Amino acid sequence: VQLQASGGGLVQAGGSLRLSCAASGLPFSNYAMGWFRQVPGKGREFVAAITWSGGTTYYADSVKGRFTISRDNAKNTVRLEMNSLKPEDTAVYSCAARQRTITTNEGLYRYWGQGTLVTVSS
Fold first, then answer.
1. Does residue 109 carry a pLDDT above 90?
2. What is the mean pLDDT of residues 47-53?
3. What's the pLDDT at 2?
4. How far apart, in whole angstroms, are the C-alpha atoms of residue 16 and residue 29?
5. 91 - beta bridge partners?
6. How many CA atoms does the CB half-sphere of 106 hold within 13 Å?
7. Cβ atoms of 18 and 82 closer than 8 Å
8. How confident is the model at residue 100 (pLDDT cuts 50, 70, 90)?
9. Could you give the dihedral angle defined by the CA atoms of residues 30, 34, 35 and 39, in that order, rounded to the nearest 10 degrees?
10. How far apart are CA 51 and CA 59, in angstroms?
11. What is the mean pLDDT of residues 31-49?
12. How far apart are CA 58 and CA 74, in angstroms?
C-alpha cells in the first residue's frame, strides 16, 4: 500500500493550495481517508476526513470553512483544497486511510503517506 501526498509549497497568508494524495495497493473505494498535519516538535493534528463514498466529511474547527476535502474513487485520489491560509497552517500534511467510518483519531488509521510540507508566510 502506498499513499503519496503532493502539492505542498510556500504561499503567502491569504493564499490557497491544493494537496493531493494518490493511493495504490488497496481497494481505495473501501477506505475512509483523512488528512493530518504536524509541526516539528508537536503532535499530529487532525485536519479533515471523508467517508469511502465521499458522502460525509468532517473538519477540525481550526480549518472549517477554509479547507475542503474531496475524493475521486475512479482515480484513487483524495484532495484537500486549502483557502485563506494562515501562518498557523504551516505544517507537514499527511494523508491516511482506514476501513470503516471516519474518525479524528490518528491511531485508528492503518495506512499513512509520507507527507508534504506547507509553509504559509505572513
1. yes
2. 97
3. 97
4. 27
5. 118
6. 14
7. yes
8. confident
9. -130
10. 12
11. 96
12. 22
Query: What one-letter code names the amino acid at 62?
Result: S
Distance, in Å, from the CA atom of 62 to the CA atom of 2, rounded to the nearest integer, reads 28
What is the full DSSP assignment across 43-109? -EEEEEEE-TTSS-EEE-TTTTTTEEEEEETTTTEEEEEE-S--GGG-EEEEEEEESSS--S-GGG-
Cell numbers at residue 69, please? 476535502
User: What is the spatial distance between Cα 106 and Cα 12, in angstroms, rounded to a whole number?
Assistant: 29
Strand pairing class (9-12; 116-121): parallel
State the cell numbers at 70.
474531496
Position 73 scores a pLDDT of 97
C-alpha angle 93/122/34, rounded to 5°? 15
Cell 492503518 belongs to 110
N- to C-terminal Cα distance for the chain?
37
